[in-house]
Amino acid sequence: MSKKISKLLIALTVVWGLLLTAHVEASRIKELAELEGVRGNQLVGYGLVVGLDGTGDSASTRFTVQSLVNMMERLGVAVNPSLVKVDNVAAVIVTAELPPFARAGNTIDVSVSSIGDADNLAGGTLLMTPLNAADGNVYAVAQGPLVVGSLAFGGKAARVQQNHPTSGRIPGGAFIEREVPFVFGENNVLNYRLKNSDFTTVSRMRDAVNQHFGTTLARSVDGGQLKIQVPDYFRDNVVEFVAQVEQLRVTPDTLARIVVNERTGTIVMGEGVRISTVAVSHGNLNLVISESAMVSQPLPFSEGQTVVVPQTQIEVIEEMGNLVVMEQGVSIGDVAAALNAIGATPRDLIAIFQAIKASGALYADLVVL
């Protein structure tokens, strides 16, 4: 009896381990797809940063001078543009993202970047800057001291710089003044768009939703779109329905793909990469050419002349080639182990993969960046 119980416990442990593995590999729907209409909006504005320690724009930056003069005139100060110095002022572009469901009075972070010839924005303060969306309306107003995570010091002969001193951020530096008109839940159909379109993944998402709610609510439109009908008992609580849908776990399907970057020697291979039976031989051919001068000097009191005779030495070094046979259907681990066994460098691997792809033995997409 005890042996049966032990075997049962072992079987349950194995099954539980497999379930945990499958659960870890699965992703939530909220990581795989986005709900249509729930998105951010880009904001941009033009402003001035003041309070710089002589590292602002030069007098040749005319739009900085014009902006400063116009601002002073709006404040009731008459200024002669020819007498204005902008060493402590810099013209900047301010960018931000208005998140979905943002309400008036909330704050958002902003990024500030110089557009003139300012050297450093450290210690500066952004003056009130309206931020516009693509429709031309002002949705936020930014102002405050900059946080510049860099330094730059130097003189005429040397200069030390770390990171980029001509850009910075203002955490919570913009107040939202206008809300994007969007009524969530007014439609009884939710439209999810996959971040990476795939027919298998969208089918698995559909099955997961229908199985969870016990009825046919989800319908896959194509490889990148999933429509879900809101049931009657969730009409007054669409938020709870969306929360349950986005917590469902689905294992996404991926393409067999190898991505290589010849400039950096980077190689990334997906799990589904397979090859047919192929033999790979690797060997490097090094050609070394060296030149030296040999002087031919005649004997004393002879009528000969000193002659310089150049000598060229050519040496060819070819490493021993290793022929490795990789069987059909091997996994990515077997491919990596076999290619490492012949001492291939990342750049050699790129050439090997290109040759295997050209031979028709590689069952994966080869993407060269």
Overview of the structural elements:
The protein has 369 residues and is an alpha+beta fold. The chain has 3 domains: 41-176, no CATH class; 183-250; 258-368, no CATH class. Helices cover 24% and strands 37% of the residues. The strands form 8 sheets. It has a 6-stranded antiparallel barrel. A hairpin with an 8-residue loop joins strand 4 (89-98) and strand 5 (107-114). Residues 4-24 and 285-289 have low confidence and may be disordered.
How many helices does DSSP assign? 7
Compute the number of strand runs.
23
Order of helices and strands: HEHEEHEEEEEEEEHEEHEEEEEEEEHHEE
How many domains in all?
Answer: 3
Essential attributes:
369 residues, alpha+beta, 3 domains, 4-stranded antiparallel β-sheet, 7 helices, 24% helix, flat
Would you kindly provide a brief summary of this structure?
The protein has 369 residues and is of the alpha+beta class.
List the helices and strands and how they pair.
Elements: H1 2-25, E1 27-28, H2 29-32, E2 33-35, E3 41-50, H3 62-74, E4 89-98, E5 107-114, E6 125-132, E7 138-145, E8 151-154, E9 159-162, E10 167-176, E11 189-194, H4 199-213, E12 218-222, E13 225-229, H5 238-247, E14 249-250, E15 257-261, E16 266-269, E17 274-275, E18 278-282, E19 285-296, E20 307-318, E21 322-326, H6 332-341, H7 346-358, E22 362-363, E23 365-368
Parallel strand pairs: 15-23
Antiparallel strand pairs: 1-14, 2-11, 3-4, 3-6, 4-5, 5-10, 6-7, 7-10, 8-9, 11-13, 12-13, 15-16, 17-22, 18-21, 19-20
